[in-house]
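Forwarding these from the shared drive since the link keeps breaking.
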Amino acid sequence: MDIRVGERLLMKKKHPCGADTFTVLRIGMDFRLRCDGCGREVMVPRSKAEKSLKKVIRADGE
């Protein structure tokens, strides 16, 4: 899966604040994501993040 820092991810489940989009801050064994609704940062294992991903929102509109 080709995900880059700075892209936004649309997830299947919503964050408790109600937002379902997250911005990618760091990539590795874990993803560090920032909730676009409340700004909280979470670390998610790569396998869990890729499984719960619905769509990648690219900056270039792809």
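-- next protein --
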Amino acid sequence: MIIAIIGGFISIVFNNDGDIEFDTSQVPSNEIVLVAKAQIGNKGGDKFWKWYGYEEHVEWCACFVSWCANECGYIDAGIIPKFANCENEGVYWFKTRGLWQDKGYLPKNGDIIFFDWADSNDEKADHVGIVEKVENGKVYTIEGNSKGDICKQKEYDINSSVILGYGTPMY
């Protein structure tokens, strides 16, 4: 019994990397965050866009989010769509199901964050990532196809002008 209690405590406090910062407050939505976190440092995104079905390199941010969702079983469960186009597939899917929140919403870990880069400023999604956490007025993300063609963690002010909105999956 004591071994089970100690084991449970260790699994709550430590994540797969042994980090003490593991957030267990929303375990169901945290699964996609853990899958995404394991991909940090992936350069080129070959495994994501090839999994999606492309034969050559494409902008792969949405393929990355979809791949992570698939690894969790969320695509088959209808929780997150399989999408390669941020605006016409990703944003559209969340909006038509009433699972969209505009900028100003306080996101949760596991939410899907969509961006409209300032250079286009056309109110259409240009990029997508996964919300890792929100702390002290910042939203922390894990994004594929980030600057340098790599998967990395990033942070933004919660009211950043480049945040378009959020898909809020029903985990």
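Confidence is low (pLDDT under 50) at residues 1-27. The radius of gyration is 16 Å.

- D.
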